[in-house]
Amino acid sequence: MLNTFPNLLVLGFFAPTLLRAAVACLFFYAAYSAYKHREAASRLRFPLIGEASWAGGFTMLMYSSIGLALLLGYYTQIAAILAGLTSIKGLLFCKRFGPLFPYQRSTYVLLFIICLSLLVSGAGALAYDLPL
């Protein structure tokens, strides 16, 4: 099949970079949302540990560290695994623990698919990652 714009195929190396930036923006917004709702998150009751006043801060730290690693391209595949696990966790618990997981289930499904794509395709341009 013929491609309409064959000259753009040269820029295919930047596709994972755009996906990395999009996922990083989503994680930075989730970190901001966790910071904004930290009071409500401190009142949540978790099954094994009960109330945890540190839950909002820990969630904000995890979201921002994953987002920063993806934005800078630092160990992208490890960050994609952590982001995928976080999106699975958000998919399962977004209704019960709303202050910690700001997105809807469909967003977490798309986030998981993008993280799988980053895991398989590699880091893209401007990244530091382990060669496989």
Account of the protein in words:
With 132 residues, the protein is mainly alpha-helical. It has five helices and two strands; from the N terminus they run ααββααα. The chain has helices at 15-36, 38-42, 55-72, 76-93, 105-121; strands spanning 45-46, 50-51. It has a two-stranded antiparallel ribbon. A hairpin with a 3-residue loop joins strand 1 (45-46) and strand 2 (50-51). The model has no long low-confidence stretch (mean pLDDT 87).
| Tally of separate helices | 5
Task: Work out the strand percent.
Answer: under 5%
State the secondary-structure class.
Answer: mainly alpha
As residue ranges, the low-confidence spans are none
Name the assembly state.
single chain
Order of helices and strands: HHEEHHH
Which sequence of strands runs across the widest sheet?
A: 1-2
Average pLDDT confidence is: 87
Radius of gyration from the CA trace? 17 Å
In which range does the helix fraction lie?
Answer: 55-70%
What is the 3D shape? elongated
Report the major sheet.
Answer: 2 strands, antiparallel
Q: Total number of β-strand segments?
A: 2
- Gap from first CA to last CA: 31 Å
List key phrases describing it.
132 residues; mainly alpha; two-stranded antiparallel ribbon; elongated
Write the layout of secondary structure elements.
Blueprint: H1 15-36, H2 38-42, E1 45-46, E2 50-51, H3 55-72, H4 76-93, H5 105-121
Antiparallel strand pairs: 1-2
Helix pairs in contact: 1-3, 1-5, 3-4, 4-5
